[in-house]
Amino acid sequence: MINILEFNLNELKQHFIKRGVKPFRAEQIFDWIFKKHVFDFSKMLNLPKDFRDVLKMEYVIGFPELSNKQISSVDGTHKYLWNLDDGEKIESVLLIHKDRNTACISTQVGCSLKCGFCATGKSGFSRNLKVSEIVGQVLAMTVEYGERIGNIVYMGMGEPFLNYDNLKKSIQILHSKEAFDISKRRISVSTAGIIPGILKMAEDFPEVVLSISLHAPNNRIRERLMPISQTYPFQQLIHTVRQYNEITGKRVTIEYLLIKEVNDSLEQAVLLAKTLKELKVNLNLIPVNPVNPDFERPSFKQISAFKQIMEKSGIDTVIRQEKGTDIAGACGQLKTQSIKGEVF
Description:
Layout: E1 2-3, H1 9-18, H2 24-35, H3 49-58, E2 59-60, E3 65-71, E4 78-83, E5 89-96, E6 101-104, E7 108-110, H4 119-122, E8 125-128, H5 131-145, E9 151-154, H6 164-175, E10 187-191, H7 195-204, E11 209-213, H8 219-225, H9 234-248, E12 252-258, H10 266-276, E13 281-287, H11 300-312, E14 316-319, E15 342-343
Parallel strand pairs: 1-2, 6-9, 9-10, 10-11, 11-12, 12-13, 13-14
Antiparallel strand pairs: 3-4, 3-15, 4-5, 5-6, 7-8
C-alpha cells in the first residue's frame, strides 16, 4: 500500500500524472486530509467513484497511532506516546500558550548522539522516521486536540539533520498552503551541531529558525556533555554559525543548558559571551531537567547572574519558560518507553 503522507503536493501530482490521473486530484486529496481531516477515501465525495475505489485498494493515509497521553497539571502541556507500524514508539509534545499551540516533534526513534543530559540518547537509536511519521505527529495532535497548530519545533526525539531528506520534505508539507499552511518563520529546527546539515539548511530554508544546542563555553566541556563535539569541534561549529549568519542574514538561537558546577560559573559566562558577541545570535538559558542524577540545576541567583553577564555583553538572552517538566515532557526528557497516563 502506498502512503499518501509520504508525498509532498508536487510529488503526489507527478505520481498521479504517471498513472494517468489529473494532477488537481492531489490538491483535492490534500484538502480532505489536511483541512477537513477526512481519512477515509470513500468519503471524499468530489473524487470519481472509480478513482476512490483505486485509492481504497492501493493507497493508505497512515500516521502514528495514539497509545498514551499525559497532560501537565501545572501548565497544560500534552505529551503523547505514539505507536508506529513496526512496533516502535516515539513521543512528542503539544505546548499550549494563550495565543498559539506549538508542536514539538520527533525525527528519529531514539538518538545515536548520547548527550549526557538527554533521556532520548539513553534509550538508544533504532531508525529514522519516515515523512509520514514526522508530519503525522502534527496531523494526529491537531485532530486529537481539536485546534490549529501554528508553530512547529523539531526538538523532540532524535537529531533532525541526521534524517535530512525526510526533514526537508516534512517542512515542505508543513509549510504548504494546501496542507498545514504554517509559516516558515514559525518552524524551528534544533541541532546538536551537525555542520553539514546547518549549511544545507541555510541554502534550503533560510526563513526557518535554526537552533543550536551549544551547552558549553569551550570544546573541553562540550565533549564531556556532547560526544558529537569530537566530530564537529566547538570552534568549527562557531565558525559555521558565522557562515550561517552571512548566508541567511538571520540570527541563530543558541540553546545553553545550565548545569550546576559544570558550565554555570560566571567565568564560563564571560568566556561564552566573548565567543558569541561577534555573532548574530539569541541565547536561551535552560536550567537542566531531571534526567541525569549527576546533573543538578543551579540556583536562581546563579542563573540570573549568568544571564546578566550575557546581557551586559549585548547578547539577547532569555531564561526558557519551563513547560511539561512534571510529565517528563520538557527539554531532554523524551524517550521511547511507555508513559503513564490516560489510555485511548
